[in-house]
Amino acid sequence: MSDAPKKTRGVFALILAKRSVLVSERQDGKGWNLPGGRVEEGESDHDALAREVWEETGLEIEVLEQVGPPHVFNDDTAVAYACRVIGGQLVSTSEAKQHWYANATELKQGFFRVRHKEYVDGISMTTGFQDVPLTLVGPTDRLGRTGRMVWDGLSLLEDPILGPNEAPEEYLPIEGVFVSDDGCFLIDETVEGQKKYPRLDPYSPTGKMEPK
């Protein structure tokens, strides 16, 4: 009998809104992650992701398309999918303490600011502010796979470079947003034309991924 570890596959949701991506703070104190989790035996990626997001956030989603490459680490693979909210309500759960639509500035600075409000004579008044730590799961000095998926999601909120399709016609439309040969762009090939998104990278001097 083989003692080799069982390979696992994780799927994670890129829920995007107003230049921000939804992230969840884990209950185990390890930091913030994209909503998602492990694909169980017999499940498709889409079914597993819809189940995991519901369990973790209380949101019902429609899974749209894969974004970027599979991220492999040892025997574990993680895949990100663009998703759309179609129902439910964002709530804390046994898996996530809280949720936040984080923008690029908040992710780079490592915290977000919330207002404390009180009602005085029926009027809502701000009484102070609190900075909440926002540290993604993974390394703190570079992008791990969680960070790479998060920043690829934010890349899709940038203005794309538009151009002609480069994929053969028989393969159009391609379902998914894939990485270019040099790794610096996310490419969405459609019948109407190609959308090419520079991949953001907070550790690059230019703020965008550079060729190796």
Q: What is the CATH superfamily label of the domain at 8-155?
A: Nucleoside Triphosphate Pyrophosphohydrolase
By DSSP (H or I, 4+ residues per run), the number of helices equals 3
Structural class: mainly beta
What is the overall shape? globular
- Tell me the number of strands: 13
CATH architecture of the domain at 8-155: Alpha-Beta Complex
Radius of gyration: 19 Å
Arithmetic mean of pLDDT: 92
N-to-C order of helices and strands? EEEEHEEEHEEHEEEE
Largest sheet: 7 strands, mixed
Strand content: 35-45%
**Distance linking N and C termini:** 42 Å
CATH class of the domain at 8-155: Alpha Beta
Given as residue ranges, the uncertain stretches (5+ residues, pLDDT < 50) are none
- Roughly what percent helix? 10-25%
What can you tell me about this protein's structure?
- The chain has 212 residues and is mainly beta.
- It has a domain at 8-155: Nucleoside Triphosphate Pyrophosphohydrolase (Alpha-Beta Complex), CATH 3.90.79.
- Helix content is 14%, strand content 45%.
- It contains three helices and 13 strands.
- The chain has helices at residues 45-57, 104-109, 145-155, and strands at residues 8-17, 20-26, 32-33, 36-38, 59-73, 76-88, 96-103, 111-120, 123-133, 161-163, 177-179, 185-189, 194-198.
- The strands form three sheets. Strands 1, 2, 3, 4, 5, 6 and 7 form a seven-stranded mixed β-sheet that branches. Strands 10-13-12-11 form a four-stranded antiparallel β-sheet, with no helix packed on it.
- The relative contact order is 0.17.
- The model has no long low-confidence stretch (mean pLDDT 92).
